[in-house]
Amino acid sequence: MTAKANSPLTAGSIVVPLGHVIGNEKWRGSELAQRLQGKVRLIFEDALGLVDFHLPNRTCILLISEADMVAGDEFKRRLVKFRNASSLRGIVIVEKTPISDQYFLGVQKLVVLELGMVLLPVANQGEASQLIIQLVREQSRDRGSNPFAGRQRARPAEPAVLQALQRIPGVGRTKALLLLQRFGSIHRLCNAGTPQLEPAVGPTAAQQIYTFLHS
Q1: Which of 66, 119, 106, 60 is nearest to 85 (CA)?
Q2: What residues does 121 pair with on adjacent strands?
Q3: Fewest CB within a 10 Å sphere: which of 31, 78, 161, 177?
Q4: Dist CA 96 CA 102 (whole Å)
Q5: CA dist., res. 179 & res. 174, Å (int)
Q6: β-strands 118-122, 89-95: how paired?
């Protein structure tokens, strides 16, 4: 379900309720937006500037498409501007395809090593939508959980989340499942250090995963 926001929103003042996503107007009518509809409460806003999607808990998505990478360096300037100007938690979703693969290492170096942001690769907008839905659900679940309650039974992993993790060097399906079983969400995995990763995948893979996700 989509709606038009009633007032302009800025990166510093935006507050997104749990279960909601505020999307940049440029994504209206896209495959990604269509796949989000009915899964989350999607509101379009034409004043988001550099950000593609705002999620709850001061998290935002910057999506780099295959076309962005092929077109030139404009997306790099956008990422640098965001990193320098915003205090929000940015997650960069990159469309990694046979065409854009030649640019991926350069994008990874910029996002992870130079800007210190989280990078998650996807194959298409369908996978990107599933990741966004998963992130929103994780935030809602974490906010509503009782910290004194016993550990809940893990939910089945979303296919897009598994596929994204398997694109990290040294991580196959088995290790991806182990990571999700241990950490329970993408947010916790992205915030984990090498010592926390090692028990699940071993020291070599732990270092590869940590280096891939953030510097």
Answers
A1: 60
A2: 94
A3: 31
A4: 9
A5: 9
A6: parallel
| CA quadruple 20, 25, 26, 32: dihedral sign | positive
Q: Number of C-alpha atoms within 13 angstroms, CB side, residue 5?
A: 23
Cα separation of 50 and 68, whole Å?
14
Specify whether the CB–CB gap between 210 and 194 falls below 8 A: yes
For 117, counting Cβ atoms within 10 Å of its Cβ (0-12 exposed, 13-18 middle, 19+ buried), the class is buried
Yes or no: say if 90 and 60 are a contact pair by the CB < 8 Å rule: yes
Distance CA 215, CA 213 (A): 7
| CA of residue 196 relative to chain centroid, distance | 20
For residues 212 and 107, the answer to whether their CB atoms sit within 8 Å is: no
Kindly report, residue by residue over 42-97, the tens digit of the pLDDT.
999 988 889 999 998 788 899 999 999 999 999 999 999 998 887 777 889 999 99
Query: What are the tokens at 93?
Result: 């979703």
Backbone angles phi, psi at 101, to 5 degrees: -60, -35
Would you say the C-alpha torsion 154, 91, 125, 143 has a positive or negative sign?
A: positive
